[in-house]
Specification:
By secondary structure, the protein is of the alpha/beta class. The chain has eleven helices and eight strands.
């Protein structure tokens, strides 16, 4: 039986700005501006900003991370989420932000390789437990919430809790890929079960990867307790056609429809 999500909360939209930086990096003109994009998204009602600064700086660069943290000082009710592999550059980035006394609310730990095109799998337990545990403890010592990027496997959620994670981010590409196929219902059930297992383990639930205006509402109607969705590629593609303000408004409408 499919269970509706709790109506006691509203899922927050965090905008991933990697693709804005990717376009900017093709020239040396500083446009489009990552901080200007963030400002427009926040003004339009986004609840947070996400970046994934990779070691090769193919999109978000070190100065972008700090510039956005400085910007978010003026938005104390919004959140800053930095994601990446904690065994590459992520912890150095977090330390730099915190050393300057700038806002940083969440680190999302992702097990991708340095040259990986995009994130495509989550952590595994117990295999990754021992090496993750001290890094999660360090993030907590910095005063930062930790979310682990995870596949939708219910039996993995207790392991994520045991190493100290506060939340998991469910890797939603398999759901998005099944959207126009007969497997859509089975994928929704898989994610519902994984989210419920995370909640039962005492974890918060985030979600992200290939969510868009077509598939977001159905996901949130079915999957319980999603605190945050992080959306980048599809949202920035929509913004090229609609503009930031209209795009953020429509994603927030998709979220609102799920909780109506």
């Amino acid at each position: 039986m499919t269970m509706a999500p709790s109506r006691s909360h509203r899922t927050a939209l965090s905008v991933n700005l990697n693709k804005v930086a990717l376009v900017r990096n093709t020239r040396h003109l500083g446009i489009p501006s990552v901080t200007r994009a963030a400002t427009l998204c926040l003004q339009a009602g986004a609840r947070g900003i996400t970046v994934h600064p990779r070691p090769d700086e193919r999109h978000i660069r070190h100065h972008d991370v700090l510039d956005l943290a400085e910007l978010l000082q003026a938005w104390p009710d919004r959140e800053y989420n930095i994601e990446g592999n904690p065994f590459h550059n992520l912890m150095d980035v977090a330390r730099a932000v915190q050393a300057r006394g700038l806002p940083l609310h969440q680190l999302t730990l992702v097990p991708d390789s340095e040259g990986q095109f995009t994130s495509d799998h989550g952590w595994s337990f117990p295999q990754d437990a021992d090496r993750l545990r001290p890094l999660i403890a360090e993030a907590h010592a910095l005063g930062v919430r930790v979310s682990l990027f995870m596949d939708a496997e219910p039996d993995q959620m207790a392991g994520a809790k045991a190493v100290g994670a506060d939340r998991v981010e469910l890797y939603t590409e398999p759901y998005a890929a099944a959207w126009h196929t007969p497997q859509r219902g089975a994928q929704l059930e898989r994610f519902r079960a994984a989210a419920q297992a995370a909640l039962d383990a005492g974890l918060g639930v985030n979600a992200g990867h290939d969510l868009n205006r077509d598939n977001l509402t159905a996901f949130l109607r079915t999957v319980p307790g999603v605190s945050e969705v992080s959306i980048g590629h599809a949202l920035i593609a929509d913004a090229l056609e609609l503009g930031y303000s209209a795009t953020i408004a429509d994603y927030n409408r998709c979220i609102a429809d799920a909780f109506a």
